[in-house]
Structures are given as C-alpha cells and as structure tokens.
C-alpha cells in the first residue's frame, strides 16, 4: 500500500461518505456483462450503521483523512465474512483493497477466527483472480455453510447470475503475510 494512505476504523460521521465510494466503484462494472450493477443503490446508512455496531467497518483514507475505500465484514458460519470491499477508482491500483483485507484479517485473528470467506464474480479479473492471488480458494457448494449458502441465494434472487458467482475461503494467517 502506498504511504499516502492509512487503513483505520471510521468515525460514525464518516459512514455517510461510504455510499458515494460504492457508487463510484460500481462504475467499474459498466464495460462488463454486469453493467446493471452500476445502477444498483448503494448500502443504506442503516446497513452501514449495523456493520459499525458489529465492529465490522474499515476505511482507507487519503492524506487528507478522507475515506476513499472501505471494507464491511461480519461473522458468517462461525468465521469472518467479507461482505463488501470498495475502493474509489481514482485511488485504485495502490494496494488499498489488499490493505483493507489485511485489516479485516488482523481483526478476525485477534477475535480468534481462522478463516475469511466471501462471494464474488468468477469471471472478472479484479474479483476472483484478485482474491486468489491473496490466498483465497474457491469453495464447492458442499463446503459452504448454511449462512454463506443463504447469502449466495440472496445474491441470486437479487439478479446476480448463479454461474458467475463463486464462494471463496482463505486462512487469516495467509492473508496477513506480506
């Protein structure tokens, strides 16, 4: 991660800045077959406040301490689940996504968890391939717990194609390696 950025917990007031980051990051889907995602509404302030109350929000801030990226996580099937990871495209390709994942992994390890799971697209380079380079591996349907399966089914019900989605898992120790 470049030195002009810091990963930290947000203040409650900063939560209101996160939907704009999500909207900007969603624009990256426009040239893909999932362009419809760019029109989806971002997380609500109520949703973000829930993650905040669970201690499940991290932000990447620039030199002016303005949030430019964020991660949301919660506990699913007894392990850390990365619900969302967004970096404003103007600040992309600077290690912020990886830095946010490492912060979530460090928190999870401190809480006594061993793994992190997520759901992502299997056919977009900055999704599954990005996570695979960090140490995530694809899960079979049989390896997914009931809560992760329910989240995946919710994604499909919302319009995401089942064949394009993949559940992934990594050991927190692996994610904390440099």
From TrEMBL:
GO molecular function per UniProt:
acyltransferase activity, transferring groups other than amino-acyl groups
Write out the transmembrane intervals.
Answer: none
PROSITE patterns membership:
GNAT
Domain N-acetyltransferase: where? Answer: 5-163
Going by the entry's taxonomy, the superkingdom of the source organism is recorded as Bacteria
- What are the UniProt keywords, alphabetically? Acyltransferase, Transferase
A Pfam family of this chain: Acetyltransf_1
List, alphabetically, the PANTHER family matched: PEPTIDYL-LYSINE N-ACETYLTRANSFERASE YJAB (PTHR43800:SF1)
Return the protein name: GCN5-related N-acetyltransferase
Source organism (scientific name): Herpetosiphon aurantiacus (strain ATCC 23779 / DSM 785 / 114-95)
């Amino acid at each position: 991660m470049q030195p002009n950025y810091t990963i930290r917990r947000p203040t409650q007031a900063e939560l209101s800045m996160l939907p704009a980051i999500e909207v900007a990051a969603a624009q990256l889907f426009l040239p893909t077959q999932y362009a419809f995602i760019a029109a989806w509404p971002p997380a609500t302030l109520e949703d973000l406040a829930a993650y905040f109350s669970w201690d499940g929000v991290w932000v990447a801030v620039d030199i002016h301490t303005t949030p430019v990226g964020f991660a949301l996580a919660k506990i699913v099937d007894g392990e850390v689940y990365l619900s969302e990871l967004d970096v404003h495209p103007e600040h992309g390709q600077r290690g912020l996504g990886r830095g946010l994942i490492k912060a979530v992994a460090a928190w999870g390890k401190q809480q006594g968890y061993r793994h992190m799971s997520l759901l992502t697209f299997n056919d977009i380079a900055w999704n599954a391939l990005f996570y695979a380079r960090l140490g995530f591996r694809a899960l079979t349907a049989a390896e997914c717990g009931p809560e992760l399966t329910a989240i995946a089914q919710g994604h499909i019900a919302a319009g995401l194609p089942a064949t394009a989605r993949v559940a992934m898992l990594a050991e927190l120790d692996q994610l904390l390696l440099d």
